[in-house]
Write a structure and sequence with these properties.
single chain; 251 residues; alpha/beta; Rossmann fold; 2 domains; five-stranded parallel β-sheet; four-stranded parallel β-sheet; 11 helices
């Protein structure tokens, strides 16, 4: 089978998940769609997030896709259950903050969950908190998506901004930090420098493994022809160029 695997994100963040999937399944053919024109989704009302997610995933469904990865925690929280009900024939893989493994990495300290406002306020995260929320501190990563979308993830500006955002927690024992937005792994290095004692969790590998498992379960893995990736964006060629650059950057 050589049908496409579609990836959807509000912008370029989902490239972090796509990299893991391509590493795990190099013979697959991927189609990435980023709704960069409307990023970030986090501050938007729920119904608007759902409408934007439906439109973005609709772009993927115009092609012959055998699976869709919602490579966005916010869009997953708002829309995954809806699209699964509409398309039970299609493999739909979503994201969720990696709170469970972070919870078990605690050794007397706290867990920071860095995510968008929408991810933290929607029901999916509330369910996770009910199970694994002991000593968890949710932190809205305000402005971080815009840094990544602007191609500034690896700059001194980004590190200084992160320091200002996270300074209230730097005097605490932070055992783990959950990167609960697919944009945030591109800020992993400066976050780790601010909290050298903390273990960082992003859920990228687990999502790619889940996709592989579901493809294998349905016998939909591609044959041994070389794979590849095609990029699309509502934000135009500048956004596509950023996607390609992020794909090639060292982790």
């Amino acid at each position: 089978m050589n049908d496409l695997i579609g990836f959807f994100d509000s912008g370029v963040g989902g490239v972090s998940v796509l990299r893991e999937a391509m590493r795990l399944m190099p013979n697959e053919h991927f189609l990435f769609y980023g709704d960069n024109k409307n990023a970030p989704y986090g501050p938007r009302p729920l119904e608007e997030i759902r409408a934007l997610s439906a439109a973005g995933i609709g772009e993927l469904l115009k092609r012959d896709v055998k699976a869709v990865v919602i490579a966005c925690n916010t869009a997953t929280s708002a829309y995954a259950e809806i699209i699964r009900a509409q398309r039970p024939d299609l493999i739909i893989v979503g994201m969720e903050p990696a709170l469970k493994p972070a919870h078990f990495a605690r050794h007397g300290g706290q867990v920071l969950v860095l995510a968008t406002d929408a991810t933290l306020r929607l029901e999916k995260f509330e369910r996770l908190m009910a199970l694994y929320g002991s000593d968890v501190v949710p932190v809205v990563g305000k402005g971080l998506v815009e840094l990544v979308e602007g191609g500034r993830a690896g700059t001194p500006e980004a590190e200084e901004y992160l320091r200002g955002l996270l300074e209230p927690y730097m005097g605490r024992q932070i055992d783990a930090i959950v990167l609960g937005c697919t944009h945030f792994p591109f800020l992993r290095a400066p976050i780790q420098r601010l909290f050298p004692q903390a273990k960082l969790f992003d859920g990228l590998e687990g999502t790619a493994q889940r996709l592989k498992y579901l493809l294998d379960e349905r016998g939909l893995r591609s044959d041994d022809t070389p794979g590849g990736v095609e990029y699309m964006s509502s934000g135009g060629e500048k956004s596509v160029a950023l996607m390609k650059r992020l794909m090639e950057e060292p982790e």
